[in-house]
Amino acid sequence: xxxxxxxxxxxxxxxxxxxxxxxxxxxxxxxxxxxxxxxxxxxxxxxxxxxxxxxxxxxxxxxxxxxxxxxxxxxxxxxxxxxxxxxxxxxxxxxxxxxxxxxxxxxxxxxxxxxxxxxxxxxxxxxxxxxxxxxxxxxxxxxxxxxxxxxxxxxxxxxxxxxxxxxxxxxxxxxx
Length: 176
Prior knowledge:
Layout: H1 25-40, H2 43-50, H3 54-63, H4 65-91, E1 93-96, E2 98-99, E3 102-103, E4 105-106, E5 109-110, E6 112-115, H5 118-128, H6 130-133, H7 149-167
Antiparallel strand pairs: 1-6, 2-3, 4-5
């Protein structure tokens, strides 16, 4: 097959995702896997949707730089979608109000309350405004550490020599 007759993935808007495909179906299945993963964030579900075993994904991550880059792009997409959803949820979601198991109505209209996730909001504030919302920990150490390590080592050596001298009856076994 010459260079002109090879299919070019860039012609249909897709970049190659495998450096060296092992068979004809692998690139298509890996692309299906990445699309399913970008939608779900679930490797097992994406592998099932693409008709591959999840171990193939992990093998390609280890062995194929082009696939690794494509997977990182899919992870970035998931991260952005999760962040957008987290922001929407932290800003408040409408929940239908129930009373005695029935939706509450006022003047014929359903009643909703807005629920905020304050913990999620704190995390997002730390993410978007880190200097204003970072953890502030102050630690003080008082007192002084005033010793000379060389002097302490020399004193310890002298004590060991004296102990050795006492054990051996006046002769030292340590080289001086």
